[in-house]
Amino acid sequence: MNQKASPATGTVPCSGRQYRFASRMAKTPKSFIREILKVTENPQIISFAGGLPNPGLIDVDGIARAAASVLAQDGRSALQYSTTEGYLPLRRYIADRYKKRLGLVISPDEILITNGSQQCLDLLGKVLVNPGDHVAIERPGYLGAIQAFSLYEPVFHPILLHEDGPDMAQFAHEIERHAIRFFYGVPNSQNPSGITYSEDRRREIGKLLAGRDTLVIEDDAYGELSFDGIALPSLRTFLPDQTIITGSFSKILAPGMRLGWVVAPQQVMDQLVVAKQASDLHSNYLSQRIAYEYLLHEDIDKRIEGIREAYKQQCGLMISLIEEMMPDSVTCTHPKGGMFVWMTLPEKISSMEVFERAIRDQVAVLPGTPFYVDGGGNTNLRINFSNATPEKIRAGIGRLSRVIRTLERE
Fold first, then answer.
1. Dist CA 322 CA 330 (whole Å)
2. Which pairs count as long-range contacts for 63-67, CB under 8 Å and 24+ apart, including other chains?
3. Are strands 340-344 and 17-20 parallel, antiparallel or unpaired?
4. Measured distance CA(343)–CA(144) in Å, rounded
5. Residue of 261, 179, 192, 183 whose CA lies nearest to 220
6. Residues 407/357, Cβ–Cβ less than 8 Å
7. Per-residue model confidence as pLDDT tens for the chain (410 residues)
8. Do 371 and 382 form a contact (C-beta atoms < 8 A)?
9. Domains of the chain
10. Which of 93, 115, 126, 153 is the one with CA 20 to 30 A from 23?
11. Cβ pair 263, 124 in contact under 8 A
């Protein structure tokens, strides 16, 4: 039997001993994905629940060549401790790519290499959030950000997402009423909804926040995965001194390398470096060296083009099957990139009940509830299309459709 912490003491009994934990832990939601991944370890289950890139699109041979080259040419250095900021040639590469893709002029000194973009969120929470600070976040919002920021005990203000971005009237209302420390958003192929902010909406956000104390954390994990390859402007274009960008190699190179980065104004960067030093000294240096060697000698743009095309096909197939097989009462978003489709069920059907019954039919989805800080998501599902073959997409949507149709009849 699982033992629960006493609300009065924050302690957990175990073999007669009481363990005392920081009060913030009681306010931090557990990862629902972690629990689901345990269930989906069964190879018979078709999983649309996680957010995994397609393993068949990872360039194992190219990464192996890069690793062999680094170890052969400079192995002792690559296996040594390094600087907190990260490998300078890699930071220069990232800065050059921002100039090429988005027209942003970024200094390598404004870039910190992290252990995945998730560490960016933790570090930003550490340096920016005091208990009780006001933080705006999308509704629905990325659950990894919700969990990371919750550790630092903010007051969340969820901003409703429309098809073209945040509800600006609500956003303006929250900005006027509260001292919002920062707004966290995923403008490109948002997780979980798949929504991409329009260029007009990005400009409106810039106009609303310009000159205020509010910062923007722009999570750009999926920016390279736009199906049409067209890059919309970063919010930094409109708010150059107020925007912090987080990025990742997980979606375009390999998630197991755990390489991300944060771009921040120098004063913020100084604090992030201190926080990172206290956390882990520096990110995996060998992975940084291998990634740079790969990027130097392999055609990453061609690789990304292949990923985009594959995901576009997988997403299109999933949406066509949803429209073909699901009841008319079920709707879904039509992403322009990324890895997720957001499904809305009829009011009478609970996403948790769909999840539980679908698992019995050997298909896993992610209920919408963990993506809301204020309650909600009871009739939503996040479905991942990137980590499934066309055959599994067809079979899995078929199973999910039968579950939903059965619940609709009951």
1. 8
2. 63/253, 63/254, 63/257, 63/290, 63/294, 65/294, 65/297, 66/290, 66/291, 66/293, 66/294, 66/297, 66/298, 67/290, 67/293
3. unpaired
4. 19
5. 261
6. yes
7. 444 455 544 555 556 788 989 888 887 777 666 666 666 678 889 999 988 999 999 999 999 999 999 999 999 999 999 999 999 999 999 999 999 999 999 999 999 999 999 999 999 999 999 999 999 999 999 999 999 999 999 999 999 999 999 999 999 999 999 999 999 999 999 999 999 999 999 999 999 999 999 999 999 999 999 999 999 999 999 999 999 999 999 999 999 999 999 999 999 999 999 999 999 999 999 999 999 999 999 999 999 999 999 999 999 999 999 999 999 999 999 999 999 999 999 999 999 999 999 999 999 999 999 999 999 999 999 999 999 999 999 999 999 999 999 999 98
8. yes
9. 27-58+302-409 (3.90.1150.10), 60-297 (3.40.640.10)
10. 115
11. no
Determine the Cα angle at 169 with ends 164 and 175, to 5°. 110
**Cβ proximity of 401 and 363 under 8 Å:** no
Distance CA 311, CA 7 (A): 46
Closest by CA to 223, choosing from 112, 101, 141, is: 101
What's the half-sphere exposure (Cβ side, CA atoms, 13 Å) at 255? 13
Counting Cβ atoms within 10 Å, is residue 245 exposed (0-12), middle (13-18) or buried (19+)? buried
Helix (H) or strand (E) holding 314: helix 300-325
Q: What is the 3-state secondary structure (H, E, C) of 142-209?
A: CHHHHHHHHCCCCEEEEEEEECCEECHHHHHHHHHHCCEEEEEECCCCCCCCCCCCCHHHHHHHHHHH
- As a whole number of angstroms, the distance between CA 190 and CA 194 comes to 5
Closest to 29 (Cα-Cα) out of 146, 165, 161: 146
Identity of the residue numbered 400:
L
Instruction: Name 218's bridge partners.
Output: 185, 245
Residue 132 is encoded by which pair of tokens? 């009780």
Of the candidates 142, 197, 196, the residue with the CA atom closest to the CA atom of residue 315: 196
| Token pair belonging to 397 | 């949507």
Neighbours of 75 (CB within 10 A): 14
Pairing of strands 340-344, 331-332: antiparallel
Q: Are 377 and 145 in contact (CB under 8 A)?
A: no
- Cα 89 to Cα 85, 94, 288, 386, distances in angstroms: 11, 9, 10, 31
Note whether 218 and 116 are within 8 A (CB).
Answer: no
- Sequence length of the chain is 410
